[in-house]
Amino acid sequence: MNTQALINTASALVAGDKGLLAMDESTATCNKRFAALGIPQDEEMRRDYRALLITTPGLSAGISGAILYDETIHQRTREGTSFLNVLIDSGILPGIKVDMGTKDMAGHPGEKITEGLDGLRERLIAYGEMGARFAKWRAVFTIGDGTPSQSCIETNAQDLARYAALCQETGLVPVVEPEVLMDGAHTLEQCSAVTEEVLHEVFSQLYAQRVMLEGIILKPNMVLPGLTCPQQATANEIADATVTCLLQAVPAAVPGIAFLSGGQPAELATLRLNAMNVRFKSRLPWALAFSFARAIQQPALEIWAGQPEQVAAAQCALLHRIRCNQAARRGDYNALYEHP
User: Which domain holds residue 154?
Assistant: First the structure.
């Protein structure tokens, strides 16, 4: 394990005001989003869409790393250039989603376990030889009646830690993604308590697996009330709850926290990230960045809708969302960015 190389890569992923572009949707998820817009659900259209993303002029000004899916990391542009080379040549670090998705957890109705540890060492080596510099593994936790259970939290946390240790062994920075889902009627306070419990267990397991914290990126949820909770929260309330939770659970050795968007509307995710950096940035031991998927991609996807003549307009929309999130990292995002 090259300790300094891992530290350098992790630091580069959250440097300046940049963030990660999460474009690692599975084939099923990508097809579902295409279907909603009437886009043909085939490999060629997925290739064209992902090519649109990575060939956006000026992308590297706001994106430090791109998380790819197995299909994507093997794809090429219509001109024959590998997606990996497109990213590397533009100064963007390529990453790869390596978990195999969530499955029902035996004996625990309504809870999920993430699969993919079998053969992971060999897959990580292969991805690293291709040019990947970091990887990602997602675990999910649902707030409900009796959930998440202690067993669900412990098992998923241990798997996240085992994945992270294998990543560092093979020279890749692990992006550790424990996501407490937005689904449900839970309150802001309930989400905070569960998120803190999950994060404490995750870091306990990371210590147990001897993972070097300076060489990871944490990709958590923001602390939010459930989507159907009757009492929603302001951006400042969410910022206070999220940062307070993180300060209780995330060691200072971690270089950066890159939030997932988790289905939040694009502008709202940006507004909430901005509130955190406005209120806390100067006092935090780690950078607060973004690793959004839909909250960056969705406007561009809707504009493109599978039409080649809409590529340039879609890329403009993508850049706009990225610039808004860069402003949020600086703490100077406001309504004028959206409606100049």
Answer: 3-338
CB atoms within 10 A of CB 178: 25
Q: What is the CATH number of the domain that holds 126?
A: 3.20.20.70
Query: What are 15-37's pLDDT values in tens digits?
Result: 999 999 999 999 999 999 999 99
DSSP assignment of 283-329 equals G-SSEEEEEESHHHHHHHHHHHTT-GGGHHHHHHHHHHHHHHHHHHH
The predicted-structure confidence for 273-296, as pLDDT tens digits, reads as follows 999 999 999 999 999 999 999 999
18, 97, 112, 219: the active-site residue: 219
**Is 219 a catalytic site residue?**
yes
Specify the number of domains making up the chain: 1
- Show the tokens assigned to 148: 């998440």
| Cα 241 to Cα 244: distance, rounded to the nearest angstrom | 5
The pTM of the full predicted model, rounded to 2 decimals, is 0.97
Task: Give me the residues paired with residue 63 across strands.
Answer: 19
Catalytic residue among 177, 179, 196, 201: 177
Phi and psi angles of residue 138, each rounded to the nearest 5 degrees, phi first: -115, 135
CA 184 to chain CA centroid, Å, is 21
